Every structure is written in structure tokens, then in C-alpha cells.
Amino acid sequence: MSFWQNDLALKKYLISTTSLMLLLFWPIQAQEVATTAQERVTTPERVTLAETNYLNQLALKGLNLDAQGVFIEALDGGTIYADHQSDVSFNPASVIKLATSFTALQKFGPDFRFETTFYALGDVDRKTRTLKGDLVLQTDGDPVLATADVNRLLNEVIRSGVARVTGNLVITGPFTYASYSTTVEATRRLSSAMTRLGIRVAGVTNQMVPGIALRGTQLTTPHLSDSLRDILFTQNAHSVNNTAERVGAAVGGPIGVQNFLIGTLGIPPAEVYVTRTSGLEYNRITPRGTVHLLQVMLQWLSERNMQPEDIMPVAGVSAGTLQSRFKSEDYRGAVVGKTGTLPATDGGVSALAGFLYTRDRGPILFAIFNSKGSVAMYRQLQDNLIKELIVESGGPQTTHRASN
Fold first, then answer.
1. What's the pLDDT tens digit per position in 25-65?
2. Taking the CB of residue 270, how many other CB atoms lie within 10 A of it?
3. 152 φ/ψ angles, rounded to the nearest 5 degrees
4. Which fold has domain 115-224?
């Protein structure tokens, strides 16, 4: 018998002894306390077979159970299928991209398109091709803006009759494109591109002034990004760090995402810490907090006639980090989730969180965090746990076997 099984037996003994004592004394206390049906708290049913098998597998492989966290429950919260260190904060790696995604969806909406365009804040003398004032780049942080998009806008500026600017190039918001991942870096590169194309400006400045460009004359046709939902799907399916960092910048950076998790979702401040909106380096959230995020996000999406697979990959179906997992016919299409991988951080981090659609038990929400071990081994154990739950739950729900 493993150490975990001995420990589990001891826990059951202690719980049984405590329960017996409560039963002996409860009638006396019950006479003194009256509660209405509305005030009673329903204790979730615990179904522990899959959890016990999973923890035993971890222990048999010599992995530290203190470095693992898991929380799995039914959509209605009525049944808990796994609960090990669910209130301990772990490194979620790229699973934090789901928090970044939901923060952006709440701020902008799923059909929002980022807009980038140039305005003239002053008069244009077409004879001298001079803008007497500032050239304003109106931007709200398009996370997938490409070099070709920027070059098209600059060529339109030239065709509008501007080759010299007496004022400044003014960047109104977060601005990144191609491989230039910060506003400072992208602005510097933009200024160089303008010089190369023959557009001279007196200086460059960044002014976060709402509506400043609207006081001027539009010089270019706005470049519109894909819809936010499509951007997020690609980001999450392929775990694109650059996109997640730039989406994060558009919502206030790591502190913006962290404040959303704490202030809007109600996750306790001690349980969450965001340093990178892509999940790189060191971030922290609990398995229970992650499942709560999934619950609220699912409801939010449903209210807008959306499904999780509109912004997350379907395992075994969608191209990306989950394409090669759960791909056999017995499991394909049952899992909609997000992976997380940091081989060189916290001793090796692997995470998996999302939605499991089953025939008999309906939707199941899960968050599995592993650290201090082999990423490949953790993935295998995660898959074993999820597959066991699928089998126990009557197989996959076929209505969710659809690709984005």
C-alpha cells in the first residue's frame, strides 16, 4: 500500500471519528438553532475514484504531492470529482491566457476590432507637402498588427500629400506591430520607416489623450483587425505569447488582469498574482480560482450565444497545442481547454484547464496544475485522469465534437 493510501485511510478514520462525535452531540445543538431551507448550505457530493487513482500514480512515480494541485467539479457545483490542494496557488503557465482573454472580452466585447489610422492635427499645404501641426497615429493596441499593415498606412499618408510634419508624430495609445513588442520599440521602428519613405517629423511623443485624433482630419483608411474572439482563439489554440502580452497591454497589463480576477471575479487577493499576461515566468492562481474563472466565463459566453470553443481549442480537433491530445475516437472533441508549459520554471510546470463534456454527467470543469517534474510525464498523467473521468461519465458528449 502506498504512502498516499495510508494517509487517505488515516483521513477517513479521523473524519469518521469526528462525524460520530458530532452525531452524538448534534441533537442538543439542533434544538437551539433553527434554519430555513434557504439558509442551509448544501455540501457537494464527492466522487473520488479518479482523484485517488491520479494521486496514487503521482506518488508511485515519486512525485511530490505538495507540488500538485487539482480541482474538478460539475458545472452546477453539486459534485466534486477531484480536490487536492485546490486553495493553494500554483504557477498556471499559459493557462493564465484564459484570464487575459476574459479580461479583454469583458472590456471590449467579442466582436470588437482594433483600429489603427493616421490623423492630421493641423492644415496640410499640398504645394509644399507640409502638415502644419502634428501627425497623430490613433491606436488602441492591435495585438496582431503586421509590418505590411503599417506600410500601407504610411503610403496612404504620403498619397494624402504629407511628406513633412512641422509638429510631432503623436502615438495615442498602446502600439506594437510585427516583432516590436513594446510601444517604445514599435514607435522607434515606425519613425525609422517614415524616414526611409521620406516623411520627416520634428519629434515623437506618446500622448494617452482620448479623442485627440478626432479633432483632426483623417488621412488614411483605418486598418481593422480580426474580431477579438478570433484573435483570442488563435492565441489560445497555439499559445501565442506575443499576442497575449499585447492583448494584456490593451487591458492595463498584468495589474489590469490581476485586478479583474480580484475585483470582478472575487478571487481572494492572496490567491492570485500576475506578472506576465502570457503566462511566462512566475504567475500564481489556485485550481479552485481557475475553475471559478471558467464558471463565470462560461456563463458570460452563453449569454452572448457563444461557446468556450469560440475562444479555446477543441482537443484532438483544433490545430495547436491540444491537437495531438485526446485524439482517439473515444475522447476526441470532449475536451475544450488550455495548456500551460514552462519546462525551466518552478522545476518544470505543466497545466491543463478547461471544460469536459460528458454524456451522463454533462459539463465538467477542471484545473490541473503540476510542478517540479517532467512536463511529458505530467501531460500523460493529466490525460489519464481526464480520460478516466470521460469513461466514468458515460463517454464524450457528441454535440461538442466540432472544430472551430
1. 333 333 333 333 334 346 788 888 999 999 999 999 999 99
2. 11
3. -60, -45
4. D-tyrosyl-trna(Tyr) Deacylase; Chain: A; (3.50.80)
